[in-house]
Design a protein that fits this description.
- This protein is mainly alpha-helical and about 80 residues long.
- The protein has a domain of about 35 residues.
- About 70% of the residues lie in helices and about 0% in strands.
- It has 1 helix and no strands.
- It is rod-shaped, with a radius of gyration of 26 Å.
Length: about 80
């Protein structure tokens, strides 16, 4: 390998490393947002299932008579 080829390889590795360092925080943030969205979706499904099961009871509502609260969604 000549000196020019070695310098080119070093430059490509450096650019690739900088690219990874720039993109990594965004990828971590996307994964974090998707995890939170899954948690919110599961909580909404659990709440809907609980409301369906309490709607079938003779009393019509959960014991205590409190109205269910709405789950806040992130924009």
């Amino acid at each position: 390998m000549t000196t020019a080829q070695t310098e080119a390889v070093i430059a490509m590795v450096a650019v690739t490393g900088l690219f990874v360092l720039m993109i990594l925080p965004a990828l971590i943030g996307i994964a974090h947002d998707r995890r939170i969205d899954r948690q919110i979706r599961r909580a909404e499904e659990a709440r809907a299932a609980a409301e369906r099961s309490t709607a079938r009871t003779p009393a019509g509502r959960a014991r205590g008579g409190a109205a269910p609260h709405r789950t806040a969604r992130a924009a």
